[in-house]
UniProtKB/TrEMBL annotation:
GO terms for molecular function: carboxypeptidase activity; dipeptidase activity. This is Xaa-Arg dipeptidase. It catalyses: N(2)-(4-aminobutanoyl)-L-arginine + H2O = 4-aminobutanoate + L-arginine; N(2)-(4-aminobutanoyl)-L-ornithine + H2O = 4-aminobutanoate + L-ornithine; beta-alanyl-L-ornithine + H2O = beta-alanine + L-ornithine; N(2)-(4-aminobutanoyl)-L-lysine + H2O = 4-aminobutanoate + L-lysine. Keywords: Carboxypeptidase, Hydrolase, Protease. GO terms for biological process: proteolysis; regulation of protein metabolic process. InterPro entries: Amidohydrolase, Bact_exopeptidase_dim_dom, Peptidase_M20, Peptidase_M20/M20A_hydrolases, Peptidase_M20_dimer, Xaa-Arg_dipeptidase. It comes from Odocoileus virginianus (White-tailed deer). Catalyzes the peptide bond hydrolysis in dipeptides having basic amino acids lysine, ornithine or arginine at C-terminus. Postulated to function in a metabolite repair mechanism by eliminating alternate dipeptide by-products formed during carnosine synthesis. The lineage of its organism: Eukaryota, Metazoa, Chordata, Craniata, Vertebrata.
């Protein structure tokens, strides 16, 4: 069907639709046509969960998916892109336009799992959404004889979101340098165009004491476990004075080897979260004082090692998520209210760092289950057939929004202006 033609709509009626609406319908049709292959892609990742930076099977499944697209060679695929388990797949619209450079649209895939409970955050569905949305945009653009400007559709496979921050590694390697807008979506319990994912800093705290016989010569020892327990309790007391949106949570990873040996070593891992990168250092300083106080009280020495990467808070881009909501509603997506968006619970993601270098959208989507993320029940839901309908519907909404960005220059300008203003607000 060509732009300007009429097509049947629901209920059997005929209506004239705009060229852009036709392209959006074409994108949705392309996603539906690939539904079986996309579902198989998701199930392959879900059935063999892999931890951060170890997603070799998922990497292979995804790169083969794009390499096998017809016609052969339509996607230029770079396996092991900057990282062993990252990849880049690129498609460029044909034509010889006079535009200075193509518009670069990025679609992000995540695919790492959680230890012990597999894909309890549904990253197999994130990979599917990114791949599906990119296929939809490519298919829609291929149906046109010409475009007002050249477009590159780029799929980035971004490992290690749960631990380490693969997107931050890729930012540092220059993978996001030329992207204009990026798209991804995360499974949840509701449909939200945005959630205020917060900044996060993690630390490993190591206490070094002195071993001794716990019964015969306890006075000769320096109890590193006591230091860990005191630190844990110090932070529990600190919570009374924390701001409502601040979060501190951690575990004692190592507390000794035998009850009759005074522990000479203990280890804790803690995460600190705050709404913005401006507040995060304030919270971190308070927590580190608690760790040092425990060392002083027990006579132990302490070593505090920060994680390789801090996760930044996700910057909202109102123009972009409003376009996404408009498209999603056309597909029957029922979104939570804007007030609920900004007051709801949230976690942290390395997409926050991406949102500081390129305008982007990171909506959340319902998958047919009320189970909570990071539970065994959510693992089951993420691998269910029911989740497929919601996942592909979300991919269609992302693809439709990307087409708006391509064919509505005024929208792209508003997106860029929103990005610029938010960056100014967040200077730290």
């Amino acid at each position: 069907m060509r732009p300007g033609e009429e097509r049947p709509v629901e209920g059997g009626a005929c209506a004239s639709v705009s060229d852009l609406e036709l392209l959006k319908l074409r994108a949705a049709e392309c996603i539906d046509a690939a539904a079986e292959r996309l579902g198989a892609l998701s199930r392959a990742i879900w059935s063999e969960p892999e931890l951060a930076y170890e997603e070799h099977q998922a990497h292979g499944v995804l790169t083969r998916f794009f390499q096998s697209e017809t016609p052969a060679g339509s996607w230029a695929v770079q396996p092991h892109y900057q990282l062993a388990t990252a990849f880049r797949a690129e498609w460029g619209s044909p034509g010889g336009w006079a535009a200075p450079r193509p518009l670069h649209l990025g679609f992000l895939c995540e695919y790492d799992a959680l230890p012990g409970i597999g894909h309890a955050c549904g990253h197999n569905l994130i990979a599917e959404v990114g791949a599906a949305a990119a296929l939809g945009v490519k298919g829609a653009l291929e149906s046109l004889a010409g475009l007002p400007l050249p477009v590159k559709v780029i799929v980035l496979g971004t490992p290690a979101e749960e631990d380490g921050g693969g997107k931050i590694d890729l930012i540092e390697a220059g993978a996001f340098k030329n992207l204009d807008v990026v798209f991804m979506a995360h499974p949840s319990q509701e449909n939200a165009a945005y959630l205020p994912d917060v900044a996060e800093h993690d630390v490993t705290v190591k206490y070094y004491g002195k071993a001794s016989h716990a019964a015969a010569y306890p006075w000769e020892g320096l109890n590193a476990l006591d230091a860990a327990v005191l630190a844990y309790n110090n932070l529990s007391v600190l919570r009374q004075q924390l701001k409502p949106a601040w979060r501190v949570h951690g575990i004692i990873k190592n507390g000794g080897v035998k009850p009759n040996i005074i522990p000479s070593y203990s280890e804790l891992i803690y995460y600190f979260r705050a709404p913005s990168m401006k507040e995060l250092p304030v919270l971190t300083k308070k927590a580190e004082d608690c760790f040092r106080a425990a060392a002083l009280a027990t006579g132990c020495t302490v070593e505090i090692d920060g994680g390789a990467h801090d996760y930044y808070n996700v910057l909202p881009n109102k123009s972009l998520w409003k376009a996404y909501v408009e498209n999603g509603k056309q597909l029957g997506i029922d979104f939570i209210s804007e007030d609920a968006m900004f007051s709801g619970p949230s976690g942290s993601t390395d997409f926050g760092n991406v949102s500081f270098v390129v305008p982007g959208i990171h909506p959340y989507f319902y998958i047919g289950s009320n189970a909570l993320n990071h539970t065994e029940q959510y693992t089951e839901a993420a691998g269910s057939q029911e989740a497929q309908f919601y996942t592909l519907r979300t991919a269609k909404a992302l693809a439709m929004t990307a087409l708006d960005v391509i064919f509505k220059p005024e929208l792209l300008e508003r997106i860029r202006e929103d990005f610029r203003l938010k960056l100014q607000e967040e200077e730290f």
